[in-house]
Structures are given as C-alpha cells and as structure tokens.
C-alpha cells in the first residue's frame, strides 16, 4: 500500500505543475488580447488631418520613407521636432533647390543619406504637407510589454505544447486507473482470503484454442484468410517503396506558401517563372525575393499564428537577408552572399522525362491539379504520388487543348477521324507511348 | 500474465513500426542507382565545378542566343534618355494579342493592381506601400521598358523573369491601362 501512496504524491506534483503551466499560458493569452489603444494620443501638428495624411504618405512618400526605420530615405516619425514647417514645405516641394541654395540643414541631410536625390513634389499643397506631418507626429502604438515569468509558458510553439501536455496527462490518468484497478483487485482477493471466503475458481473446460485446433475446416479457412491478408499488406508495402507522397522536409528557411500565394495572392509564376517556358519550374533565385523583401523586413503582428510567432517569422526573413548579403541598417548589399540549400521535394527518377511548359503553357493545366492546394500549405509537401499510373490516368482523362493552337489543327482532323471523336485525350494523341516519357 | 506481456510486445512493435514513417525524410527506393544517376541534376550539388553547385553563371563575356544589347544605363540620365528615345520593336499583331495582359497579371498585379491604379493586393493589405498610379507618372514605352529592366527605387528589376520581348509586351499593356485610368 505504501507504494500506492508514493504514486499518488508523484501524480499530485505532476498535476500541480500542469495546472501551473496552464494558468501561465492563459495569462499570456490574456496579455495578447489587451488593446494597445491607450497610448494612441495624436499630437496633431498645426491642425493637419492625420487620416488624410496617412493616405498621402502611403501613396507618395512610403516608397522611400518608413515611420520608424530607415529605408531609401530616413525614418520620418517625429520629423516636425527636427525641422520647422517652413523648411519642410520647401524641402518637399523641391529638395534639390534647397540643397543648391546652400541651406546648411538640407546639405547635411543630403550628405548623411549618400546623396540620394528625393523626388520633388511641387503639386502637394501646404495643407497636404501639414496632414502628412500630422500623421508622422502620431505617437507610436506600443506593443504590450511581456510580463516576466510568462516567458516559460509563452514560448513560440505554445499551442503544440499545451495540446500534447493535455494528451499526455490523459494517458497518464488512464494508466493510473488501470494500475489502481489491478491493485484493488489484489487487495480484495487478499481480504477475501483473510476472511476465509472462497473465491470462485474456474471449472476446467477444454480451452477454446484446443477446440479450434481440432476443427480442421476452421483452421484451413483461417490460414487462407491470414495468408491473403498478409499478402495484401506485403503488396501494399512494396507498392509504396519509392513513392514520396506527403514528403515534407524541413527547409533551411521556413518559407510559407500560405502567406505568399494564399494570403497575399502572389501568382505562382511570379516566383516559379521558368514553369512557363522550360522543363523545370525552378526555385526562385534570391533577387526575386528581394523585389519585395527590400521593403518587407518584418511581418505584421496579425500574420503571427499561435504556432509561429512574429519573432520566428522575422528571424526567417533575417536568414534571407544573411543569404543575399543585405544589410538592413544601411539598406545596401554587403557583397557577402551564400547559397540557400533548399531541399528538393518533387523528384522523378532520371529515366522519366517530364516537362512543365508542355503541361502549364500548352495544355493550360493549373499548378494545383498536380501540386494540390499549395496556397494553403504552411510547409510545402508532395501532394501527388508521381507514379507512372498517376501520369497515365491523367493522360487518359484529360482532353488536349486544341483551340488557338495552329500546331494541332491538322493532327486533330486526322486523329478525330481515326477515333471518331470530337475531342482528343492526351492518351489518344500518343501520351501513352513509352518513348514519350522514357528515353 | 504471459498474455499481457505478449500483447504489450505486439503493441510496442506496431507503434515502433508506425512511428518509423516520417514525412520529413524521403522513402526507400528499390534500386537507388536507377533513380539517382551519375549525371548531375538540376540544382544539385556537384563536384564537377569549383564552387560545388550545378547552377552556374555563364562565363564572362558569353552572350545568349537572341540577345539584344541594351544601351541605356541604370542612372537617372539613362532613364531620361530611354524615356525620350527608346521605341518598341513589337508589331501590331503582338499589340493586339492578350499576351501582355497575361504577363502583367502574373508579374505586376500584386503591386500595381489590375487597373494600374497602384492598388494591388500587397498595397491594400499595407505590406508594400508607395506604389504610384500610372496616371500620376509621365511614362512612355521606353521608360516603362527601362524601369522593368532595371527597377526604380523600391521597385525591383524584373529582367530575369521576363525576356526582352515579353517586357515590351508588358510595357505596351501598361500604356493601354494608363490610357483607361
């Protein structure tokens, strides 16, 4: 009995720590929910309208200026404290003139920023500029500061941990129940023995397996059944050798198709641009990433999910910067780059020839037909089995796109006469010939 | 008691086998040397080259087939010259086709929007700001081609995604959009 007592105190400790963890993760969720509105007291500069200012800023200035970080031009938050309004009007209307006139402040700013000229905006009225400055004078909305102590429970993959903790706890409880039942049974038996009560013992009968072994017909049927079943499983096992369906390796940069192709609706071919014109779809070179990521150095708060935090995503973008050699603080390339070793997922054996442009451009098949709902994948994986049967099935079912393709007019006439059909499938056009895929 | 052991053993083995299946590692192959040939594959690592990569830059001074030199420089002066002098070589058949639109909808639409008003998906979601409406810019065929080739400030170069001919198709479509704004 002593043993059981020990066990209990252990489990109490476990429960206690579980409860502790849960409360902590609850408090940290509550933290996230507190609105950050309290600090947003606008300091309107000279009666400009910050809402209109934001619009003007986003369409005219945001290409080169950010509020809090250097981009092509310097950060503009609180710029009204640095210069007086008259200077800012002149600067925005035509900064080159101001620099030429020898204004000390203007020359200094120009030289501090590697002498990049700023576009002149003679069309903006002083009222417009007031609005822009009112927008840049707004106090930054502070993110809620993390409370020390929640850090343990609030680590990056919180959702995952608490789920598996709960499951683990349930399993533990089950195991304890089983053990307890066993012990109770033992104790009862002992009590019964001590009190001299006879526990009913089983009367000896022929065990069921002996009866079974004597019935030869049953044995035959079962062994046939067993053989068939194991043949089925062995066949299934052999057939999946060499098939990598659902393969999802860990990539060197956690790049999410869901965020790019899903949420932001970037076209697949923007990045996999070679799919239009060549055999390979190609993994984009990093200069393509930098078309956007020169400007997108971090993700928005709203992009983070319980599974992947903002800090995690920002670190991934930083990995991209390290690989291309982009220095965020000076907004320039350092010239020190290193290749990103993406792990290849789809890979046909070398004895098969598959061409993307034939399927994407000529046949007009959507990427999703073969690669699945990629725009929902946080982590890229292989959707199709890529077996020969898969290719052949589709060639049997899919019609060739004849319209607007002069190359096909003659062969279409001849073949449709031969098969007596209106539309031709890829198979009828020769898509089943071994030599088309193997040579 | 013995039965209990046997059952646990069976369970253990099943779980062990099931947990061996791991989606982050590739599956076994029958005859690996049929699948992975000696010749190098696209994007593979390879000892055939000094830097260990299959993907190589062309040797200095080589020119692709069909290459047409582009003589305007990537400077503000080059931009002005291109705007004033550069004319499109494409013919009326290309101008009336919808190829330019198809390309625009792949490469430009996320930032510039379907109508060219600077309100693409990325701008709407406030991920990428400062995209102008074409109407607010003084642009010509030549200047659009120049900007797509080299990029301009926050906009990057699209020359490695679009061939010279395709850039002309897109430039033509941009002016079409601009005239409708």
Automatic annotation (TrEMBL), chain A:
Q: Where is the signal peptide?
A: 1-30
CDD domains in the record, alphabetically? Cytochrom_C3
Membrane-traversing stretches: 165-184, 217-238
PROSITE patterns per UniProt: CYTC
Q: What Pfam families does the entry give? A: Cytochrom_C, Cytochrom_CIII
What's the domain of life for this entry?
Bacteria
Database matches in InterPro entries: Cyt_c-like_dom (IPR009056), Cyt_c-like_dom_sf (IPR036909), Cyt_c_III_dom (IPR020942), Multihaem_cyt_sf (IPR036280)
Query: Cross-referenced SUPFAM superfamilies, in alphabetical order?
Result: Cytochrome c, Multiheme cytochromes
- Keywords, alphabetical: Electron transport, Heme, Iron, Membrane, Metal-binding, Signal, Transmembrane, Transmembrane helix, Transport
Q: What is this protein called?
A: Quinol:cytochrome c oxidoreductase pentaheme cytochrome subunit
Q: Where does this protein come from, organism-wise?
A: Flavobacterium gillisiae
From TrEMBL, chain B:
Pfam families with a match to the protein in the record: Cytochrome_CBB3
Record has Mitochondrion as a keyword: no
In alphabetical order, the GO MF annotations are: electron transfer activity; heme binding; metal ion binding
Q: Which domain of life is it from?
A: Bacteria
Give the record's keywords alphabetically: Heme, Iron, Metal-binding, Signal
Signal peptide location: 1-24
Metal-binding: present as a keyword of the record?
yes
Give the Cytochrome c domain ranges: 95-178
Q: Which InterPro entries match?
A: Cyt_c-like_dom, Cyt_c-like_dom_sf
The UniProt entry, under PANTHER family, shows: LIPOPROTEIN-RELATED (PTHR40394), QUINOL:CYTOCHROME C OXIDOREDUCTASE MEMBRANE PROTEIN (PTHR40394:SF2)
Stated name of the protein: Quinol:cytochrome c oxidoreductase monoheme cytochrome subunit
**Annotated source species:** Flavobacterium gillisiae
